[in-house]
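dude i think i finally got it to work??
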Amino acid sequence: MHFFITLDKAAEDPAVVKNGIDLISEERAKQINKGKTAEADLTKNPKGQLSVAAGILAQKYIPKDVINSWAPVGWDYDNWLQLLDKPYPERLVIAGALIAAEIDRVTLLY
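look at this
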């Protein structure tokens, strides 16, 4: 059995529904287009911020103390809060893209 999600609830056409890999790939492409490349992450996210953020975003329920008091090192707090405020399916897609970004970053190191 395959599970598919769509982030556009209005989409009725089955052709519009994309699987997780497609959604994550599109999100990662958006990040790269905004300059969030593996090379940039070598200096901006050298302490595992991408994987930590992905782990938090992937949680269905995020504790209030995390929401109110923590953001990845060097990340804009308001932008972080906006990510945390997104619906769970969207956070999963972003988390997947952040893991892909961390893999890209680490690949440059080894």
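The two ends are 37 Å apart (CA to CA).
im so relieved honestly
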